[in-house]
Amino acid sequence: MKLNHFIFIICLVLGAGAENENEDVFVADTEWKEIKEGQKIPPGLHIRINLQTGKKEAKLQNEDMKKEQALVITKGQKAKVHIPFSELKQTLKNIKSDEGQESSKTKGRQFRTYEEIKTELGGLNLIPKLDSEIIKELINDFKKNEKLENRNITKIKNILEDLEYLSHQIDNAIEFVNQNGFRDIVYKALNDSTAEIKIISLRLMSSLMQNNPKVQIHALQTSCINELLKILTLEKSISIKYQAITALSSILRRFPLAQKRFMENGGLAVISKVFQKGDIKLKVKLTTLVMDLVTEHQLSSLSEDSKDALKQYEEINIEDKLIEHDWCENVKTLLKSLVSVDEDNHDFIEKSLRAMNILVKHCAGSYDDKVLNYLVQKYNKLGVEGIDEDDEYSLSSYFSELKDLCDDLLKSNKVMQKTEL
Ligand SMILES: *[C@@H]1O[C@H](CO)[C@@H](O)[C@H](O)[C@H]1NC(C)=O
Ligand SMILES: *[C@@H]1O[C@H](CO)[C@@H](O)[C@H](O)[C@H]1NC(C)=O
């Protein structure tokens, strides 16, 4: 990421007003102003975050920028680097939880802080416990509660949620593994008859493995991939499948050995089936996973991965295998259904277009000109309407980028169609 890149968001969701007079509330102006540590942010502001320094700034909203839209802008020029909506949402969530530190007590479980969990679990003992002790207690608590004849599902869910919260920290996740958490908790809870427990267990699994190679290896060694494939094959519930895809993504990303195992165990056939039966959201989720994996493979030769890893990537040969499993058709039909049922979901359409673009070498010629032409016109129009006087940012660049993407796909399509004639 280059210097001077800001993320812009409009603060619609943040925004708890001050609950008492002593709270430090950010006072907005028409100019950008830094948000100080611990300040509350009133709703309805523009917020931007410097991706380099993490510095957050806010100002009052312009009249004509009402939509909840987000763009990345290079200062003084048109935006070229683009960050997907989903990442911005994550950033938004992060600010939300920063902000939640102080008001967590009034907002319920979701905003409990790390310190609060520690204090609460420590009972009246005010000396904060070591994380490893807390993890141990939670694991024991789970075992105890799970065995009870009259299980308290809420209690069990709370334990899993606390563990999930703690496991975002890499060291805690490793501690959890060392204390046999996968065996005693994750796989047990995955097997639970209550859907809610299954779902939280999958969330716990995802956060344990995410960007944590040690945990990824442990999960692979304990047949995590097979467990996930089993769930994806047998479960009927879309929300369980959705969480299982998230967990799958956590173990597969940047872990070629796991990808290899996934392929060997028929993973591509499983996800193709899930795709065919899934709703739009699930389809977009799977398409994103596929796109991320292909991107990782395409970039692997540029990265500093070891020779071994490079060899593994080559052996996996993911692109050809995806094509064998109909992914040209999948991405094409996904775009078509999106345009017919949810055409203003720019985030989904963008993901779908990017997936088509990443597979263009294999799939050009088979994409649907009519749908792409329709989108070109649509984004062209939106791009012109979105032009803003404040040239520090502009909505139009987001739509123009989508239009360019469609144009490129049309061009590649034409070239291939000509060659085929
Ligand atoms: C179940 O556990 C929750 C959370 O600990 C508690 O609030 C609730 O009263 C318990 N329900 C029963 C029936 O014990
Ligand atoms: C999962 O459930 C099945 C059937 O209820 C049982 O046979 C199996 O041992 C369970 N697996 C785990 C890891 O608890």
Automatic annotation (TrEMBL):
TM helices/strands, residue ranges: none
A GO term from the CC aspect: endoplasmic reticulum lumen
Source species, domain of life: Eukaryota
Higher taxonomy: Eukaryota, Metazoa, Ecdysozoa, Arthropoda, Hexapoda
Species per Swiss-Prot/TrEMBL record: Henosepilachna vigintioctopunctata
Keyword presence, Glycoprotein: yes
Protein name: Nucleotide exchange factor SIL1
Keyword Protein transport: yes
UniProt-annotated location(s): Endoplasmic reticulum lumen
